[in-house]
Every structure is written in C-alpha cells, then in structure tokens.
Structure to design on (722 residues):
C-alpha cells in the first residue's frame, strides 16, 4: 500500500504528510484512484475506531443528537462526482514565496463520493431561528499560534443546506480511506478543499460568525500593505477559482520541428462549468482547444489541441480556461500573504529541435 | 564547430539565432569558452570581410575618420574580464509573458575581451563642444516597425569616455568570432548586453539624444497602464541589475534526506561588486553563502553553501545577492512591457527522499 502510494503521489511534506496527485494519474484518470488522490493534512492523521465513533450535532439546534456511522449509512445515499483542489495549490509559484506547504500545481483530484446530504442530518436536529453558520469540527488537532486546536471550518447555513453538500463515507465505491477522512468527512462541491473537513467529530450550528484560526487567520486572501498588486484584504477563501493546467507535453520535453503533437490538460472552476479553454505559445495568439465531454457540474474537464511547431527553439506554452459565469484565468498572478487561490495562466517550456538532430545525445 | 556549439548552447530561437549558455558551461567555467557564450541576435549575422572593413567615426567631431582593423589593433591594447547579461534574460518568467525572445536564466556569460579604449579613437577624432552622445551602428540590419534599420544604440558621452569602454577585436585570446561581432564590437562593462554593439560599422558622435528604435521603442522599461505593479514608464535600460542564480542542484533533483549537499551558483551586478549572497529554503530564513574569490570589478562571483535537508518532501531553494552599492534582489518581480531586467529572487524546486527509498524507481 505504501509503495503503491509512493508511485502515485508526489510527496510535498512528510510531517504532516502532504502529497500531490501524480501527473501520470492526472493524465490517465478522469476519476482519480484513491491511492493517487492528493493528500492535504494540517496535523497528524487521526486513527478513529468507527465502532465507537459518533458524530455529535450541537449548538443552535432544537435537539442535539449523535449519529453512529451505521445510522448515517442508513440515511438516503447520494453519489457525487467532485473535483477538489487545495486552496494552496500553486503556492510555490508565488513571489515572494508565502509560508506553508509549497504546493506546485497538482493538489487537485476528482472522486466519486458516497454519502448522505448534510440537510438530512440538519433536518433531524432542526437549526433554530438564530442559526447562521454550520461548523465542521475535525478529529485532527495540533498547535497553531501557541494554542491547541482542532481543524474546524464553518459554512454559511445557506451553503450547508445545499442539496449537494454531503457527509461522505465512501470514495470511489470503497469505504472512505483513513487518509481521506475515515469514517466520515464533509464534501462541499465548488469550494476549495479546506471546506470539506475530514474526520468529522462534531457539527456545531452557530448563531454568530465563527472566528477560529482556520477561518480568520488562515484561508483568507490576506494582503501585505506594501504589495502594490494586492487587491483584497482578509476576504475569505471560498469558491475554487477558474484554472487550467497543461499535462502533456511535460516541462522540458524535446519535440521535433514540423511534427504535429497534441497538447492536453485539465480545466476546472468552482464558479461554473468550463466552456472554453484556449491555448497559445509565446509567439502566437490564443486558439480554442477541444473540450472532452462534460463529466458533471462539479468536475474538471479535459482539453486538447493539435500544435505543430514550425521552427527550432524554445517555446513557452500557455492555457487559459473560461467558465460559464464568464470568469477567465488572469495573465498576471495576484499575490496574497498565505498563497491561496493561485489561478493565473501557467507557462510550460519545451524545446523544439530539428528532426534527427543529434543535439543533447 | 556547429555540433560543438549545439552541445554547449541551449537554442532559444533559430531565426534569428539566439541561444543561452549551457548550465554545464556556467558550472565549469569562470571564463566562458567562446563556443559556450550565449548568443543574442536581432537580425541575420552579417558576414564582414575584414580586409575591406573600415570603422567610420563621424558626426559632432572635429575630424571624421575611418580606421582599419589593422589600425585599431595597433593602438594600445587592453584586456578586460567582463560578465555580460542580455537585458531580456529571465523574460520567460514574467507574467503576463512579454513578446520577444523567451530567455530563461542563462543569457549571461563572462569573457576576457581584448581591444582598445573607445577614448583612444575619440581622442583622434575630437568630439566637438556640442557632443553629448556616442552612437554605435552595427552592420546587422533588418525590418522593425515596417522600416529597415540597423541595430544601433547610443551611450552618453561621459559613459563612452569611461576608461573601460573598449572596442574589442579579441575574445578569450582568439580573434572575435563572427557570431560575437567580428571584426570589432563595443564592450560596455556594467551595462546590459544591448550596449555592447556587435559588428561595428560606424561610431557617430551626436549632439542630440538619439531616438532610434532600439533606444526609444525597445530597451526601455515600458509599463502598461493597467499593471498595478509597474513602477516606471519608458525609463531606459542601462546598468545590469543585481542578480543571482542557483546552478546546482538542478531543478527537480532528487536528494537524500539527512545528507549534506552543496548548493552553488553565480551572482553579478552592474551597480557594484557582489558582497553578499544569501540562501534559504521555503521553511528557513536567509543564511549567508560563501563567496569565491572576486575575479574583478566587472565579473560574476561564484557562491556556495552547505545544506542538509532534515525531512522528506519538496524544498524550494532561493538565493539573493547584494552588491556593494547596497542593492539587493527584490523578492517580487517587477513586470514591464518588453520583459527587461528580470532580477527578482528565483526559486528552484528539489525533492528530498529517504535514503535507500525505492520511490521513483
């Protein structure tokens, strides 16, 4: 199992364990296998005995209740295909480099999740009239800012009641793996991964805005005062920004002059469906790529385009996605203090050589 | 000769021919061999018959004169060790990507040039009292903005009279190679490469500011109005900005956890001597690197530092140079319309694995 994970994941940090989906898995699979799905932890992975585990639902509700895994599984089940991206994906491209995990571009993956709607749980406990937010409390905990705390994040009540916010116990027809939140995690489509809290211990309905560490001190687009290109200050990180990546050809590939190749990749957005992906090189203008079939409202979309380099030399390749809300990737990165939401146009460098060139041999 | 060049240079464009110094040559040589020295052309390389070639000196001078190669070689000779960097070096890292040649980081090299001081030539022709600039006119020409023109650039007279501005006919104890400006080129230490005009045909002393294409439309820090982080508009590109690069370990290298390695590279500046290079990873603070011996006032300086990664995972490596004028590399890139003077802190990504790990096998 470990060796398999090591071939399918690119380790970014060992303590706590954080790893990106491999390029191979991204190229091969519309639905990412469980052992290739990127892993994002803030703390040690908690080991939970599901026999004794109960999900507490407390706070601004008419009846506080607990639910066993068996009870949750007995509720109406829903399967959802969802692309999830870490809010810090792309952080290592930011300049100045923000602190925290230096993700490159592949903290993104797609799985089919099985669970029950959060609204099923909430309808049993009945949020009272003062309820405004729903707080997810994970079993993972550690020290931040000198204080011990669990990973916990709130959602506005209106979002929490969305029909496609689920409490998931299955991942790609398997029980939820320990590393991905066993026994039960939240899945919040369209939002960056931090909203999909793993190892759920408690759901607390709140009547005031939550002000915890991961709500107000992290997962905010915090800007430094001396950064001229910052455009927002302490806005919360919410929906996934529209983005595309080139998967093939890989960085540094040597191509042959005059020979046609296929450039392909993935595109996704939390604010709508992908309707356009464009491609260009440094010396040509944007051209529309072909989109593969749409897998669903919450998933990435594969794209490809034929390209024939006419001259030898270095080429810079770029892709740009647009969603049906009209949002496109910016060409200039927008820096923020903790390095979230990086979605500007990425560049890929390849080398084009004469056919039968002996260079580099 | 061609095959040798191909192994020592990284081709960036074939038409016109532009190529970067190879990493291997940068690692091995304090003085770059001629066939490994980066090549920057705007147009076709002119082929000049040195027997019939004459350098014309005209304009705001008391006596216009021509000089044969033999006459120039008979003047007092000077040898100068100079690091030259293309003003567009690093352009391909800028976002949005500016037009023109997509240089990565290695359009930089050092050679020992042999020539005579420009002031020797000027003292014979005697600039008159209205003289303010010296225009170098190259034999290379082509079409820009719909008009045929040579590559031509001016220097303020005060700069042109500097004792270390030379007309070079020798490069590393060889005659100046055709590709580097045969028979005679300017060498202007401290300035970006565009000032060191190749294939000199004419030196014209001017009494008014030169307004040619390569003076006023290119080699300017032109900013777009809608770019928030632009800080200057149409200022001329002049001195080389302080900069450092990491040469070893290369991008994507796999290192072993707990084993010490040496991180090394080069640093240079047109505004002073390099007095400090610092190194850090994404999760540590700046530490002073060791500087190799100073090769001279106009050359790069090699630096190195020992580093022992303690945990597995991805590490982002960074270096930052400071010169004796107190200038340091910025951590945030400053975009400009044509992509000149990129000198912000560069990042290098490496992977650290367990000793004897089987990952990646």
């Amino acid at each position: 199992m470990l060796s398999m994970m090591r071939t399918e994941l690119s380790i970014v940090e060992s303590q706590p364990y954080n790893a990106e989906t491999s390029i191979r898995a991204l190229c091969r699979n519309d639905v990412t296998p469980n052992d290739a799905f990127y892993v994002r932890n803030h703390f040690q992975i908690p080991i939970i005995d599901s026999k004794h585990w109960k999900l507490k639902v407390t706070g601004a509700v008419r009846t506080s209740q607990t639910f066993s895994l068996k009870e949750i599984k007995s509720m109406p089940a829903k399967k959802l295909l969802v692309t999830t991206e870490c809010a810090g994906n792309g952080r290592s491209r930011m300049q100045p480099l923000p602190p925290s995990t230096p993700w490159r571009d592949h903290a993104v993956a797609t799985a089919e999740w099985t669970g029950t709607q959060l609204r099923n749980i909430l309808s049993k406990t009945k949020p009272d009239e003062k309820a405004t937010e729903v707080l997810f409390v994970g079993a993972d905990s550690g020290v931040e800012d000198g204080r011990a705390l669990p990973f916990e994040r709130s959602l506005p009540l209106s979002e929490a009641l969305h029909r496609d916010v689920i409490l998931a116990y299955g991942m790609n027809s398997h029980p939820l793996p320990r590393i991905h939140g066993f026994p039960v995690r939240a899945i919040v489509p369209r939002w960056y991964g931090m909203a999909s809290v793993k190892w759920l211990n408690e759901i607390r309905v709140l009547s005031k805005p939550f002000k915890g560490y991961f709500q107000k001190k992290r997962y905010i687009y915090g800007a430094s005062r001396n950064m001229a290109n910052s455009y927002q200050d302490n806005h919360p990180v919410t929906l996934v920004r529209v983005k595309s990546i080139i998967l093939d050809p890989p960085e540094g590939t040597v191509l042959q002059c005059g020979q046609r190749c296929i450039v392909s990749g993935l595109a996704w957005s939390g604010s709508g469906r992908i309707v356009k992906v464009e491609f260009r090189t440094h010396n040509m203008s944007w051209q529309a790529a072909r989109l593969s079939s749409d897998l669903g409202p919450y998933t990435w979309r594969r794209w490809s385009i034929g390209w024939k380099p006419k001259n030898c030399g270095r080429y810079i390749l770029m892709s740009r996605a647009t969603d049906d809300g009209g949002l496109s990737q910016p060409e200039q990165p927008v820096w923020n203090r903790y390095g979230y939401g990086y979605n500007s146009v990425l560049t890929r460098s390849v080398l084009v050589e004469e056919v039968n060139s002996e260079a580099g041999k």
